[in-house]
User: What shape does this take?
Amino acid sequence: MNRSAALPIVLICLGSVWFLKSTSLLPNTSTLLALLLAAAGVLLFVVDGFNKSTLVTSPLLVYAGGAIYLYDNLGLRPSHLLSFGMIVAGLLMLLARSEHVPERSRRFRLPSRDGEQ
Assistant: This one.
């Protein structure tokens, strides 16, 4: 009888996180969220390359991570962080409209039903 390995894997993951949290080796939740958002922004840029989509989303993910970190650790006001984030988002959207920035690549898109690429 072949059983699923899902339960042991979940137990190992939850036990590891609980151990790291109880020994203070794991950073607090907001710092961990900030690091994950920044890493997601960098990873998105690496995986998808430079294009109109990643020019906006990757820096905004990194900014969101930085804003969470600044809010939690330095006590900056959310209104300051959000208003500056709106300025950054607007500037990035204007930059993405440039004809020098390539369109999104087609390498990760699913083929259409017509068989066209």
Summary: The first helix runs from residue 6 to 22.
